[in-house]
Amino acid sequence: MTLLTWWFRLTGIAYIALGISWIPVLNALRLDAVVPGFDAPEGSTAYAGFLDWMLVFGLEMIVVGVVLIAASWRPWRSAPLVVLIVALSLVRGIAHDIYMIVNGYSLVANLVFVAFHTAVIVVGVIAYRSARRDAWAQGVDSARPAIDVRSQVA
């Protein structure tokens, strides 16, 4: 389960780093790069509101990152989090980046994030499958995580 452990840790660190970048003091410095042509005057309600909204997004990223790092202590029991992160990377990651590209935002920046989310997804799925094989081989908890996603769907 080493790969799954390290996937949780590295993905968690990446989420924390991205979350910190959305703290208003840091985000204000790069607002023009994030939203080219943002025309709300500094100090206006729209300007402050946008930064405040992005703070919530950043805090969410930090919380997810901390949870992923905590999950690395018991990776197989936390395996359903892989499904959550893969889903978030597909929807809030890749789909959102494509939406941004279509709407004229930075092609290069968004393609970098598409690559990041693709790596998170691919390595996460490989790590999950590897950990599942290891669990089956060791007979751990009937090779089921704490919450079996399949049993919730059926």
From TrEMBL:
Q: Which UniProt keywords apply?
A: Membrane, Transmembrane, Transmembrane helix
Q: Which domain of life is it from?
A: Bacteria
Q: Which Pfam families match?
A: BphX
TM segment ranges:
7-26, 46-69, 81-102, 108-128
User: Which InterPro entries does this entry report, sorted A to Z?
Assistant: BphX
Please identify the protein, giving its name as recorded: BphX family protein
The record lists the organism as Agromyces atrinae
